Amino acid sequence: MRISIKLKFSLFLAVLLILALGVLSYFVLQGVERNQLTQIEAYLAQHVKTVNLRVKQTFYTGTRLEQQIFMRQRGRGLATELAGFTGLGVTLYDGQGLQVGTTIQDPPVVDQQSEVNAALAYALHNKIAYEVVGDTLLYLAPLQGPEEQMGVVKLQYSLKNSQSFLRTLQNLFLTTGIAVLLLSFIIGYLYFNRAAAAIGRLKKAAEDIRRAEYIQAPPIGRKDELGELAEGIYFMSKEIEQSIAAKDEEQRKLQLAIHKLQALEKQQKQYIGNISHEFKTPLTSIKAYVDLLNMYDDDPKLLLEAKASITKETQRLYEMVEKVLQVSALETYDFESQAELLEVAEGLRDVCARMSGKAERFGITISCDAEPAHIWIDKESFMHIFINLLDNAIKYNVPQGTIHVHSELRDNRVTITIRDSGIGIPDESRERIFEPFYTVNRDRSRQSGGTGLGLSLVRNLVEKQNGSIMLLETEGKGSVFELTFPATS
User: Fold this and answer.
1) Where do the TM regions start and end (predicted)?
2) 120 and 15 share a domain?
3) Which of 5, 80, 265, 278 has the fewest CB atoms within 10 Å around its CB?
4) Do the Cβ atoms of 154 and 140 come closer than 8 Å?
């Protein structure tokens, strides 16, 4: 979170005032509290002397008893008498720490009682101890007998007046401190506001220049160093704007030319190499049969064989040229497709019906399990995609093999899988099967008429319809292609 400089200066002043007031208040309150405690201790110590004198007087003037027996027999009366002298709550304990008399009616709670017991144990060793319990000070002092400590006296002193005085002081310091803080903050904020506003405008001008939003006039007009800085920023902005504009234009043209050249070079090398390689095989076969016919033109068997082979290779060449043109058109131009709402299950059953004749000739069984769903797609592209995939599944299947087409609605997308029981695709070829002219088995592709362009064309069509296609991993034979398209409700 950004904090303005004027707010920072004001907050800094406020922090200094808070620190000064806080330290001053702390030491004053601590001094007052220590002074109160000192006075209370002196007051209670004087009462303890009076208590000791009275206990000794009673011990010597009455029937002479053993000290602990004396404390147990006379403790209750002494506690009442001493409370009258001192005006405080008095509790007497014998030398074993047993209570022998008290004028305190409300005993402390369990947690407080454990603290009092600790102080009592300390006082039994001829030492003075005190414990603050709530708003009460419990002062424990030894009772001295003729020869040794006779017991302990506990005086209960109320701290309500002292605590009330401290709270009054605290509230006074708090009220005064808040008032001084607010007044200082307002004065400091107003004082730094004018200079900070000018600095803020200069900062904004620098930020605009950094974002290439160049300023058209000096951000501030002043007759001091800030005004001179504003003029300098303005002239710097104009120079940078002109330099960057010229540089960007040259860089854009150069970068565009480099990208186009790199893309064209790569595409040219790839297509020339692939086309040359793929066209060479059927042309070699055609040339060989032409040479044989020139040598043995009267051989009827050779004539029939050459006719069939040349027809097959010519058809293969025609299909390759046709698919090369389709792939090039898709990669070069962005034709507008006629998208429409298509029912997936109906479309897949239509494709399977069209390919069932070819599948039957090869002894292949096609099954379709499609869940009703709708997608927005060009119907011709849809047919082209799945006819190509089913055609490959038939070409590269095994005798009496199967092809299963399945579709379902998953996460607002229509997922379509085409599974076949064919020869499958090796792991080392999985990443390249969508490349133009790439075939897993070139001998099998030539026998079946494959050009290596079908899957490349399919991927381009799928991606132009906002879909995706991938080859799934299979544990056994065969291959599985998964296609997904956005579902339309």
Assistant:
1) 172-192
2) yes
3) 265
4) yes
3-state secondary structure of 363: coil
CB 330 within 8 A of CB 461: yes
Ranges in the chain, pLDDT < 50: 109-111, 332-335, 442-449
Residue 195 lies in a domain: no
Spatial separation of the C-alpha atoms in residues 488 and 9, rounded to whole Å: 59
Residues 165 and 253 in one domain: no
User: For residue 194, which amino acid is it?
Assistant: R
Our separate counts of H helices and E strands in the chain read 10, 12
326 near 457, Cβ under 8 Å?
A: yes
| pLDDT tens profile 44-91 | 888 888 888 888 888 888 777 787 888 888 888 888 888 888 888 888
Q: Which CATH number fits the domain that encloses residue 300?
A: 1.10.287.130
Pair (113, 244) in one structural domain: no
Q: Closest Cα partner for 343 from 368, 367, 366, 376? A: 376
- State the DSSP code for 96: T
Among 278, 303, 336, give the residue marking a domain's end.
336
The residue whose two tokens read 């995609």 is 385
Q: What is the spatial distance between Cα 230 and Cα 211, in angstroms, rounded to a whole number?
A: 18
